From TrEMBL, chains A, B:
PANTHER family cross-referenced by the UniProt entry: MANNOSYL-D-GLYCERATE TRANSPORT/METABOLISM SYSTEM REPRESSOR MNGR-RELATED, MANNOSYL-D-GLYCERATE TRANSPORT_METABOLISM SYSTEM REPRESSOR MNGR-RELATED
Keyword annotations from UniProtKB, A to Z: DNA-binding, Transcription, Transcription regulation
Keyword DNA-binding recorded: yes
InterPro entries: Bact_HTH_transcr_reg (IPR050679), Chorismate_lyase_/UTRA_dom_sf (IPR028978), Tscrpt_reg_HTH_GntR (IPR000524), UTRA (IPR011663), WH-like_DNA-bd_sf (IPR036388), WH_DNA-bd_sf (IPR036390)
Name of the protein in its database record: HTH gntR-type domain-containing protein
SUPFAM superfamilies, per database record: Chorismate lyase-like (SSF64288), Winged helix' DNA-binding domain (SSF46785)
Molecular function, one GO term: DNA-binding transcription factor activity
Database matches in CDD domains: WHTH_GntR
Record flagged with keyword Transcription regulation: yes
HTH gntR-type domain boundaries: 3-71
DNA sequence: CTGGCTAGTTGGTATAGACCAGAAGTTTGC
DNA sequence: GCAAACTTCTGGTCTATACCAACTAGCCAG
């Protein structure tokens, strides 16, 4: 038994959520009504809710309230199954919205690919959903030489499928970095969450089988919506 | 420019920290003095500090104050270099403290390894440091048949080195899962941080080259102390 | 010089209340 | 029947204050 009241509250809320999940249809009652039910302040109540948010049990949708988080999506960044494929493989419904497309330089991408800072890229920014919940925003920077008319023909299909099918690229070498982050205001807004919400930042630099740079991409995931799973075999 | 004051505060603090990092020797001034300096309340000040904590720029040591976080440790969970090796390879100083050793069943480990729930394990719990900052606690569950007298001979060397050198095991197949978490009170206490601090949970199930279960381990990292880096080559 | 005690400082927790802007629901007007 | 306008609700932010427990540093006694 913990001493701090908000930690007791956390446990009580956890049980309350377990029992009423179905009845509430995924949405928790208003903070004010929960605070009243537990005879405490909204401040303390929110502290307890934030605990559960950190655990990934619940989340907030911007100014709309607290919601019970669906199961995490299994995600293996070392395989290159497309988003749509692995989401569907887990019985979930994927969706993608393209937010912007343009061609311009992006020094961080250039550096990650070993190109000069003023190297222009085809830039695609998109938001991805699982079962109608926005779970990540992603920016792709593709070297124009590798996919010249990309922005004319791209709608929302698999980018890797395009690169392989249309331009015959083999995405052979990948450098992947993952760090936890607090979502920047702009990313948070595009995911309909409060700024500072916990997220996971995944960056990939991709070269082909001749070490030529193909693309760089950066994903911002809601921290509670994925589980990184890797299966390995055959080393020492 | 953001509207919310605590977001402006966050930026001001960020700059303040940048400029005074050396002078403060890693430790921020007291919350009350910072609140006074910015003519605001401790509550709002803490909200801004929490933002920076989420970004991994600063962290708290339980009741001792706010500290500037050192650079993240690069960590490749797909390679099996020992903790000591890869910490030193990055010019940092590793340290390990053994917290407990015992032999008992642990159903989650059993399930991950495909063994019956009542299967006993040699259990080692240890805390790991980088440059004298505790960055993770780890629990290891080793199948006793694979390393019978483990608990008698183990001090704080590399476990994988032992398994390979003394018992000749080849750690061939690994199943790795990583999820963000909020540190449970017990883990938080062992890392000297407040309960609910953001963490990263890494679980590994390890089999040998004949698919025999060897060990299961679970690590709880402080979220701001690692960067997961994976380099891959040679697939499509 | 050492070890234990003490007083002050600091972060952790909690209360009570307030205002705002965005979301949702309802009514109104065409 | 539908769209626009309005009201209500709700989460997001902020102030001001208070108490406690743990940590720190300094004092004191041995």
């Amino acid at each position: 038994m913990s001493d701090a009241y908000y930690l007791q509250l956390t446990e009580q809320l956890r049980h309350l959520i377990d029992q009423n999940a179905a009845q509430w249809e995924g949405k928790l009652p208003a903070e004010r009504s929960l605070a009243e039910r537990f005879a405490t302040t909204r401040v303390t109540l929110r502290q307890a809710l934030s605990q559960l948010e950190g655990e990934g049990l619940i989340h907030r949708s911007n100014r709309r309230g607290w919601f019970i988080s669906p199961a995490r999506l299994d995600y293996d960044p070392t395989r290159d199954a497309g988003f749509n494929d692995y989401v569907r493989a887990q019985g979930r419904q994927p969706r993608t919205a393209v937010l912007s497309m343009e061609t311009r330089p992006h020094p961080p991408a250039a550096r990650a690919l070993g190109l000069p800072d003023d190297q222009p890229f085809h830039h695609i920014r998109r938001r991805r959903y699982v079962d109608d919940r926005a779970v990540l925003v992603e920016s792709l920077w593709v070297v124009p030489d590798r996919a010249p008319e990309l922005l004319e023909i791209y709608t929302d299909q698999s980018l890797w499928g395009l690169l392989r099918g249309r331009w015959g690229h083999h995405l052979a070498n990948r450098s992947i970095r993952m760090v936890s982050e607090a979502l920047a205001p702009i990313d948070a807004e595009e995911l309909f969450v409060a700024p500072g919400t916990a997220g996971l930042n995944i960056r990939r630099a991709i070269l082909d089988d001749q070490q030529r740079p193909i693309e760089f991409d950066e994903e911002h995931w809601l921290h509670d919506s994925l589980c990184i799973c890797v299966e390995l075999s055959g080393q020492t």
